[in-house]
Amino acid sequence: SLGYDIAGFSGRLSYNYQDEHYSVYSGNGYTNEIQKAFGRLDLALRQRVTEIFTVGLNVNNITDVEEGKYLENEVVGRRNDISGYRYGTTADLWLRISL
């Protein structure tokens, strides 16, 4: 994460990386499931407008990465894609009123 705060402004850019890993490991090595590696980028911005009003923006998965799995046969040394999920980029714009 990389963040910056000054006066009433706050911003943060975050990168999260997850390396590939086994989600299912078969005893015979024919049907191992491996979660694919992925990295995603998120952004959070906040600005205090007055003493009682704050506005913000959160943007998640800016890079629109795909998450998925391989089916591995380690006996013959082969991997095949078995699933892929693309959740897309999402954004939230918000207003906070502090009474």
What brief labels describe this structure?
99 residues; 9 strands; 0% helix; 4-stranded antiparallel β-sheet; mainly beta; 68% strand
Plain-language structure description:
The chain has strands at residues 2-6, 9-18, 21-24, 32-35, 38-48, 53-60, 66-73, 78-86, 90-97. With 99 residues, the chain is an all-beta fold. The mean pLDDT is 94. Helices cover 0% and strands 68% of the residues.
Following the backbone from N to C, one meets helices and strands in this order, namely EEEEEEEEE
Distance between the termini: 31 Å
Total number of beta strands: 9
Fraction of residues in H or I helices: under 10%
Question: Which structural class should the secondary elements be placed in?
Answer: mainly beta
What's the tally of helices?
0
Strand content: over 45%
Using the CA coordinates, give the radius of gyration: 20 Å
